[in-house]
Amino acid sequence: MTEYVKNKNPKSKISYIKYDWTSFEVSSSGAFTKKLYSMNINLYNSNDEKINGGKIIIIPDDIENPTKINELATNNFDKDIEETTND
Question: How many Cβ atoms are within 10 Å of 87's Cβ, its own excluded?
Fold first, then answer.
């Protein structure tokens, strides 16, 4: 998951990610949709400064007995950071 977020956001210069495992939950994105996992994350640079945060969505092969991740999704943190620095 860490590599996915870093690769999706190369401009953010993410050094490490803290996963808030206490926020981990089973949820759905709307009516009649498959259940998925979600969790809050915080992104940090190499100076240990928090640069952003949000949610990561994990869609497993089986919600009750997962053996692999079928899909991951998260915010576009590069875009968020660009908007913040351009304001």
Answer: 5
Cβ proximity of 67 and 44 under 8 Å: no
Cut 0.70: pTM above it: yes
Tokens 């803290």 belong to: 18
Q: Which two tokens stand for residue 28?
A: 């759905």
Q: For residues 2 and 20, is the Cβ–Cβ distance under 8 A? A: no
Alpha-carbon distance of 69 to 1, in angstroms, equals: 10
At 60, list the tokens.
């497993």
Give the whole-angstrom CA distance, residue 16 versus residue 18. 7
- Percent helix, strand and coil across the chain, each rounded to 5? 25, 45, 30
In this structure, what token pair is assigned to residue 50?
């928090």
Quote the pLDDT of residue 9: 84
